[in-house]
Amino acid sequence: MAENVTQLPVKKERIMPSATMPAPFESLRQEIERVFDDFGWGGYPFRRSLFAAEPLFRRESSWATMPAVDVVESERAYEITAELPGMDEKKIEVKVANGQLTIKGEKQEEKEEKKKDYYMQERHYGSFERSFEVPESVDVDKIEASFKKGVLTVTLPKKAEAQKPAKKVDVKAA
Description:
The chain is mainly β. Helices cover 15% and strands 40% of the residues. The chain has a single domain, classed as Immunoglobulin-like. A hairpin with a 3-residue loop joins strand 4 (69-73) and strand 5. It is extended, with a radius of gyration of 21 Å.
């Protein structure tokens, strides 16, 4: 039985930092990062490094708005897997710009139940945005994203020179 896998486009943008954030806003962003550092939260909470581990208390409090994400490194690529149950692939955007990989999504769910003695209607709306630093060893032009059964998989293949096996250096007695 063949399973459907939807390939999502990955937008590649090159934006100059000065064009995206005027000087007054850049200093405000730096001040906000400093405040988060002062509280021991490890920097600005919305732009985290690919390898940064989030503290347990932040993970628990934001689970409803932020999808669970796994980052795995293999010999040939990095793979980011995000759990997005109930989402439509048309509402997911994957973008690469200025060394950042950004995953955005929006979920709209409506539930209506009519029975003999009651009527229930629920609406759930929410959006998220997660960004990751893209390591220099990644071939940005070959990044791919696919969505299958509520799981988004973004593959970041390494450049050929980054895939070479480590060379063992013999230690000689002096």
